[in-house]
Structures are given as C-alpha cells and as structure tokens.
C-alpha cells in the first residue's frame, strides 16, 4: 500500500508532481485530513487520482463502481470527473471512514452522483448483478478493497462492465512483494494470481501501469 508513486527517484517524483499536478483545494484538504488517520497509506496518490479523473473523462463515463472507498479520495476524483447525470456505486463496510467521504462529497456537490453501499462488497456486487439491467451497463470500475477477494471483484466487475468499459485494479505491485518469490502470504498470492490470470485472459485488453503501487488497467472486449 502506498499513497505515493513507488520506485521513482525522490527528485524525479517531486518534479513530476510539481510539473503536472492540478490537485483542487477540496482534494488537497481531504488528503491532509486523511493524513491524520493511521491508515492513511491506503489512500491513492494525488497523481493517480488525477490519472483516474482523466480516464473517466476519456471514457465519458456515466456509470461507475468503486470497491473500497475509505475516506473518499478516489471516489471524489471519479465523481467530480463525471457529468451531472453520472452515478457511482461506492462500496465499503466502514461507517466511520465513509462518514469522512460523505462530508467531502457533500461539500464538492457530488453527493447526488454517489450511492454508498455499506456491506461486504461481494454481497453488494451480487445484488447489482441480480438486476439484469445492471449487467454490461458500467463504463468504469475501480477495485481497491481487501486483496484476498480481488478475483471475486474482478469477475463481478467484468460482468458489470459494457464492452469497451475499463476496470482499474489497484496495488498490483503490493509494495514490490509480487516480484519476490520468497513472499507468499495470502494477499500477495491473491494479487499475483490475478495478475497472471489477467495476462492470459482473452476477455480483456490489459496494461499494468507503474503509478502509485501499480495499477492494472483492463479493457473489456
Ligand atoms: N480507494 C480508497 C482511496 O483512494 O482513498 C482507498 C480504499 S482502502 C485501500 C480499502 C477500503 O476497503 C477500506 O475503506 C475498507 O473499509 C474497505 N473494505 C475492506 N474489505 C471490504 C469488503 N470485504 N467489502 C467492502 N469494503 C471493504
Ligand atoms: Ca489502494
């Protein structure tokens, strides 16, 4: 987990941010507030947030799903980049963390674009998939919750996406652990297994992006 892009020389990372970041005041304040939480490394980096906003705009995404909200940084980036009629299904289990997210969604004027589901995300996704009209109706999915369920999230999000829709799967480097054969805990194994599966998966066009802690982009065919 990391709230910065890993594996870049510090000077170059500072340059990249200075030369390209356009973090809005509200995103900046949310990042600063989240820094006070001991789990703040779970938040995506600002450059990843900006990249995801760009993806949303390129896709002209109107329907999106996010698995793992935390204090809301990524959801705010996605929702602010969507048009007024856009809708983001935001999945988490923490009332406490998402109460921070809700405060910022309200301040940013995007609350009406976000439906928050507080339940295990597999259950929420199965609930969505049970409604026929939801299948193949989504433009974008962001997967960033418990790593052991990543394959379950991948399969379900793939069903929700329309052909040409995009899934972004976070932390696919897992701090570099995926590349260390001596590490084989459950989370590392789950991410490694999914990375390998995606490489061979004929249903998608994949690309692994070295931003943040590694972001796997997957376009549904
Ligand atoms: N995307 C967020 C951001 O950029 O700020 C960070 C998400 S954080 C890495 C992971 C979140 O997943 C936590 O808020 C946690 O409560 C949630 N979570 C963990 N297990 C979950 C599950 N089984 N179902 C739903 N949410 C879960
Ligand atoms: Ca993450």
In short:
The chain is an alpha/beta fold and 221 residues long. The chain has helices spanning 10-20, 25-35, 46-59, 73-81, 95-108, 121-129, 150-160, 186-199, and strands at 63-67, 87-92, 114-118, 138-143, 161-170, 204-209, 215-220. The chain binds S-adenosylmethionine (SAM) and calcium ion.
Q: Which molecules are bound besides the chains?
A: S-adenosylmethionine, calcium ion
Morphology: globular
Give the topology string: H per helix, E per strand.
HHHEHEHEHEHEHEE
Low-confidence residue ranges: none
Strand content: 15-25%
Estimated radius of gyration: 16 Å
Q: Report on the biggest sheet.
A: 7 strands, mixed
Number of strands: 7
First and last CA, distance:
29 Å
Mean pLDDT score: 97
Query: What percent of residues adopt helix (DSSP H or I)?
Result: 40-55%
What would you say this structure looks like, in words?
It is a single chain. This protein has 221 residues and is of the alpha/beta class. It has helices at residues 10-20, 25-35, 46-59, 73-81, 95-108, 121-129, 150-160, 186-199; strands at residues 63-67, 87-92, 114-118, 138-143, 161-170, 204-209, 215-220. It has a 7-stranded mixed sheet, sandwiched between helices. Helix 3 packs parallel to helix 4 and helix 6 runs parallel beside helix 7 (150-160). The longest helix has 14 residues, at 46-59. The radius of gyration is 16 Å and the shape is globular. The chain starts with 9 loop residues before the first helix and ends with a strand. The mean pLDDT is 97. It binds S-adenosylmethionine and calcium ion (CA). Calcium ion binds at residues 1, 42, 44, 144, 170-171.
């Amino acid at each position: 987990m990391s709230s910065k892009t890993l594996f870049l020389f510090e000077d170059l990372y500072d340059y990249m941010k200075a030369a390209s970041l356009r973090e809005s005041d509200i995103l900046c304040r949310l990042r600063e507030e989240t820094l006070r939480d001991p789990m703040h490394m779970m938040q995506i980096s600002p450059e990843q947030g900006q990249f995801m906003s760009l993806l949303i705009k390129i896709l002209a995404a109107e329907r999106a799903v996010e698995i793992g909200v935390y204090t809301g940084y990524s959801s705010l980036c996605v929702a602010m980049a969507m048009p007024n009629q856009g809708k983001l299904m935001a999945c988490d289990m923490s009332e406490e963390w998402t109460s921070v997210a809700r405060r910022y969604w309200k301040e940013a004027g995007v609350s009406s674009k976000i439906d928050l589901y507080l339940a295990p995300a597999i259950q929420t996704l199965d609930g969505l998939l049970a409604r026929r009209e939801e299948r193949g109706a989504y433009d974008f999915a962001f997967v960033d919750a418990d790593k052991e369920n990543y394959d379950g999230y991948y399969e379900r999000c793939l069903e929700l996406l329309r052909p040409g829709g995009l899934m972004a799967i976070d932390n696919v480097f897992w701090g570099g652990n995926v590349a260390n054969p001596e590490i084989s805990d459950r989370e590392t194994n789950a991410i490694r297994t999914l990375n390998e599966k995606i490489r061979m998966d004929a249903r998608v066009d994949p690309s692994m992006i070295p931003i943040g802690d590694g972001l796997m982009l997957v376009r549904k065919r």
